[in-house]
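Reading is simple: each integer encodes one residue's backbone shape. An example follows:

___
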Amino acid sequence: MKLYIKYMVSIRCKVIVKDELEKLGIHYTLMDLGEVEIKENISSDQRNQLAIALKKTGLELMEDKKAILIERIKAVVVEMIHYSDEALKVNFSDFISEKLEHDYTYLANLFSEVEGTTIEHFIIKHKIERVKELLLYDELTLTEISYRLHYSSVAHLSNQFKKITGLTPTFFKHLREKRRGGLENI
């Protein structure tokens, strides 16, 4: 049996869910972003207790099939961009479609209808957030970042970054260095 959990998008969230499952004596076989596969069927009482406990931590046990699918799309995108360092061998739409075992057109239409934005735009926003993180870590060049995040070129990354943030990647990085220099001089 699978449980779907809204807002479960980080390793910290996984730890919270694991703790709550253990408190209720619910055993799981697999835990991924946004979903948990449990070994046994749970009672409605256990389900309610889990829902209440998760709600207190900012997470939400989901029931609606469309909402579950939307959260699964988001989790796949987050996993793909923030937690995977290996290069995709297929494009994003094929990857999402394969991972969720649904036609991409159906997923894209459902996502747009519910979220008011496209999957593509959601991916772009997450890619730009990941670029910001990588720029702040200062371990990779812009060329390496563009390759890691599957941009066709550094120019494409830079144009998209500026369109979303209003800043060039270089200026964004410069602001960070300027801020750090200011703190060191205190």
Q: What stands out?
A: Residues 121-184 form a domain with the Arc Repressor Mutant, subunit A fold (CATH 1.10.10.60).
